[in-house]
Amino acid sequence: MLNAWLDGFQSLLHFKQLLFLSLGMIMGLVFGAVPGLGGTTALALLMPLTYGLDPITALALSGGVMGAVPMGGSISAILLNTPGSAPNAATCLDGYPLAQQGKAGLAIGAAASSNAIGGLIGTVSLLAVLPLSKRLVLSFGPPEFFLLSILGLVMVATASRGKMLRGLVAGGVGLMIAFVGFDQVTGTVRYTFGVQYLWDGVHLVPALIGLFAGAEMIKLWMKGGVISGSASGVRITRLTDGLLETFKHWPTVLRGSLIGTVVGAVPGVGGVVASFLSYSLTVQVSKDPDSFGKGNIQGVIAPEAAINAKDSSALIPTIAFGIPGGAEMAVFLGILVLHGMQPGPLMLINNQKEIYGLVWALTASCVLAGGLGLLFVRPLSMVTLLPAKKLAPVVMTVAFIGSWAVDQTIENVILSGVFAILGYAMSRLDYPRLPIVISLVLGAGLERNFHQTMSMSDGSLAVFFTRYICLILVACIAGALLLTPLRSTLKRLFPRTVAYPERRPS
To answer: In the chain, where are the structural domains located?
Structure first.
């Protein structure tokens, strides 16, 4: 195991890998600072551009992006009360009041250091769990992998509170799309409507580019105006004091990092839950809860530590089981597949060098992006003042060029356009997009494992109730489906009011 760690580390110690890691960090900071973009859009745009790179370089670039996005998002959250990415919304609660008090540097310094420490704790957790994951997945067979895929779909669909039914519908539509093309079991071609391009199924990379990058740019175009308000007049001082505050409140950092680590390992829950849960618990255990929402530095430290810790632990279900922990990891799955790495048990065995190279890249990005963000905090805040009508066409053009570059076919561009419209429509109708992505990623394996299970059991479903791991997974699926309606019922029967600080309007 030590050799695998060293091999992964040494794979990054080359000029090319370090250059692309740095480029990824810069892109992550910029996309993290611009509201509406974030890591998912950045990875979707980068995916086709990594086609000509070797796997280690592509993973270094991806790790740089994922590690730097939270830092970029915290800058716009603190200075402009406009979170660059959704998880940074919790940072607005106390970060923006600090900026209004002339303590923007204090908040940004605390965000940078807690990001770095949270990322390190998440990395240590990942390195500790990966060897155990390898042993666990080897005990799985087709029935277990089929139920695990179903569990991943159900958990993602039920993760968005109040949208369970919509999530399940979106997941079902995603499975219908995933079944397009040649069926390896029956040898027939399904739902292609005579289009030869669809014989290989719906291509994942162009679909993800359209569903996220394309849809977000349509939304930005329709919104119009500038992305956020004015950043003029904000004084950025006392950055060093912010770094010291993080170490002064080390229990808050540790608690937030552990919360992010646990939440990140649960597929479909995401960084928003991790950051707000960390913030809420910090308020509850504080001796002065009334100070939160008015500029308490712990209100910045807690969510930022959780966000970066979540990014590391989200790799566990993504790599070990092929079930992405969120939208960003779902797009990252596309990068792995594009470079011939199939997430799951075989990847843990055959691609250890690439896995640990990614872990080191993500760790380096978490630590270095904080310092880079502090150096370029002012220019990054100005990025959010770009007019949406000018930014959206540029990003959309780059996205479609990248989609074409994957196979150099115009059909990819058309597919990206179709999924961009679908993603925008789902956003307007308040349907979650993540279940569709999970279905596209898991659909082929889910179908294959089901057929293999039926062959093993002569068509009997009893196999799902005679293997102990299957019984655990069935219980988890039932619990995930029942938890949301049970929570709603209990809320109606036992209503209670919980006071949390409200986010101030921009």
So the answer is: 2-492
